[in-house]
């Protein structure tokens, strides 16, 4: 009995229990139209046994494969098998449910599906963490996952789901808001880097300036996000109405400009603070050696301090990028665009799938940004021998 327990993975056991419990919850929801709540349907009732049995078997076997400790690749394969089972149930079950409903009926994933998706993704993440893939392998796995997701969405397997029907009716608007969301998140990070890196270098060199700047940036970080967006409205509204050329370039009380400025202010503390911390992480012995070689302060900064502090500096950018991708959703409240437009439209219409049309891409963007930045941070931490 003791030997048996020793071969059971504790995380795998937890995931199996949670996954089996999630199977008892409604797997899909069938509603008369896009607004009403609808009725939850458990996985084994969404279609006949010929459809549900293979999907349920894949999920259960996948969870069982995650129980085995030590066989990490088997656990990873179990997570993939379980995800395949979820895809099978969604793609095969949705048409069956719609065929038995009215013309305006909508079918959506329900709580059981989302819980199982999270459990299987956690199982996959746990297996990958045990495998400890290098940055290049992680990058390959990440690209493979994105390609697989694109192929699934492009194949039409899930086109009967309500969230994809919302996408089909708003395709042009979706890509417009995607570009606006990317502009808000990545543009504000780029602007913060242009301002924050030089300011961080100056703060590193000057203790008095550091003591004055960092508390102000820390104070800005404490302002709630919704309040920060609200404060930008009267400030930029006054600026746009007072300065003749301001409105010509799009500066006004509502829209893109106040959202961009709010995100920029939120971004400055992590960028400046991590730049200071990164530069300060250079060992004093290394700096003394650089001075002994006759390097000027500028040469020490470019050749010694910045390369050694780059992982910490990039960590600050990672924090800012993931933060701003999420905060950009709030820009929809003040006309700034982005995926928040769909989220708040869905809230006003009590249309859950319209909310998901804005929320799900935001989650995918944030996870993708975090993975890519983690890979970059790890690459900068490697020595040339390790990178080879």
Fold and architecture overview:
With about 400 residues, the chain is an all-alpha fold. It folds into two domains: about 1-150, no CATH class; about 170-385, MetI-like (MetI-like fold). It has 16 helices and three strands. The chain has helices spanning about 1-5, 10-25, 50-65, 70-100, 110-130, 135-155, 160-170, 170-205, 205-220, 225-240, 255-280, 285-290, 295-325, 340-350, 350-380, 385, and strands at about 30, 40, 105-110. It has a three-stranded antiparallel beta sheet. A hairpin with a 7-residue loop joins strand 1 (about 30) and strand 2. The longest helix has about 35 residues, at about 170-205. The radius of gyration is 25 Å and the shape is flat. The model is unreliable at about 1-5 and about 385-388 (pLDDT under 50).
Quick summary:
The protein is mainly alpha-helical and 388 residues long. The protein has helices at residues 2-6, 10-23, 49-65, 72-99, 111-131, 135-155, 162-169, 171-205, 207-222, 225-242, 256-280, 284-292, 297-327, 340-349, 352-381, 384-387; strands at residues 28-31, 39-41, 106-109. The protein folds into two domains: 2-151, no CATH class; 171-387, Orthogonal Bundle (MetI-like fold), CATH 1.10.3720.
Q: Provide the CATH superfamily of the largest domain.
A: MetI-like
Strand order across the largest sheet? 2-1-3
Fraction of helical residues: over 70%
Average pLDDT metric: 88
The number of distinct β-strands equals 3
Biggest sheet descriptor = 3 strands, antiparallel
Percent of residues in β-strands: under 5%
Rounded Rg: 25 Å
Give unreliable regions as ranges. 1-6, 384-388
């Amino acid at each position: 009995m003791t030997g048996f327990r020793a071969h059971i993975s504790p995380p795998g056991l937890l995931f199996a229990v949670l996954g089996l419990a999630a199977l008892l919850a409604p797997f899909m929801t069938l509603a008369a139209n896009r607004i009403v709540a609808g009725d939850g349907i458990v996985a084994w009732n969404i279609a006949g046994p010929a459809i549900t049995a293979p999907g349920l078997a894949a999920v259960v076997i996948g969870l069982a494969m995650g129980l085995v400790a030590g066989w990490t690749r088997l656990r990873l394969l179990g997570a993939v098998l379980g995800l395949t089972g979820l895809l099978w149930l969604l793609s095969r079950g949705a048409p069956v449910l719609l065929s038995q409903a009215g013309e305006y009926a909508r079918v959506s994933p329900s709580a059981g599906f989302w819980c199982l998706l999270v459990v299987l993704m956690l199982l996959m993440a746990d297996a990958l963490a045990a495998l400890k893939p290098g940055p290049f392998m992680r990058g390959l796995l990440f690209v493979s996952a994105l390609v697989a997701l694109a192929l699934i969405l492009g194949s039409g397997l899930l086109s009967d789901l309500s969230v994809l029907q919302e996408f089909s009716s708003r395709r042009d608007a979706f890509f417009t808001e995607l570009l606006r969301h990317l502009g808000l998140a990545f543009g504000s990070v780029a602007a913060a880097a242009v301002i924050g890196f030089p300011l961080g270098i100056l703060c590193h060199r000057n203790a008095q300036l550091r003591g004055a700047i960092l508390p102000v940036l820390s104070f800005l970080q404490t302002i709630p996000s919704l309040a920060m967006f609200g404060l930008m409205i009267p400030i930029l509204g006054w600026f746009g109405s007072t300065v003749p050329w301001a409105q010509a370039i799009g500066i006004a009380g509502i829209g893109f400009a106040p959202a961009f400025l709010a995100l920029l202010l939120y971004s400055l503390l992590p960028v400046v603070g991590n730049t200071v911390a990164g530069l300060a992480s250079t060992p004093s012995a290394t700096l003394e050696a650089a001075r002994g070689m006759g390097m000027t302060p500028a040469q020490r900064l470019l050749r010694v301090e910045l390369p050694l502090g780059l992982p910490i500096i990039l960590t600050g950018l990672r924090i800012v990028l993931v933060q701003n991708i999420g905060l950009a959703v709030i820009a929809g409240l003040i006309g700034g665009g982005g995926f928040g437009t769909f989220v708040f439209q869905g809230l006003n219409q009590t249309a859950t799938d319209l909310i998901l049309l804005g929320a799900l891409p935001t989650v995918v963007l944030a996870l993708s940004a975090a993975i890519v930045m983690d890979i970059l941070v790890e690459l900068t931490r490697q020595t040339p021998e390790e990178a080879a």
